[in-house]
Amino acid sequence: MGSLKEFQELMKKIYYExxxxxxxxxxxxxxxxxxxxxxxxLIHFNKAELEGEAVDVLAWLCSICNxxxxxxxxxxxKKYNGKCPKCNSIPCNCKENV
Length: 98
Known about the structure:
Blueprint: H1 4-22, H2 24-44, H3 47-67, H4 72-80
C-alpha cells in the first residue's frame, strides 16, 4: 500500500502532460463532474460504483493539486494535525453541522 503522496506522484506521471494542456479550469470541471457521479452513486448506494467514483474524485483532485504544485498529503496533515482543526479535539466536538 502506498501513501497519498505516492498516489499524487503517480497521477502526475500518468496525467500531468495532458492536464497541463487541458488547463486548470477544464481540469477542475472534470473534478466537479466526478463529484456529481459520486453523488449519483451515493443516492443509489451502489458500493462498487461508490468506490470507483471515490477514487476518480481523488485522482482529479490530485491532478489539480499537481497543476498548482500543492502537495496534498502535506497540507492535509498540516491542517488536521491529528485533530479537528476547529475544536482541536478527537473526536470532533464541534456543535455546528451535526
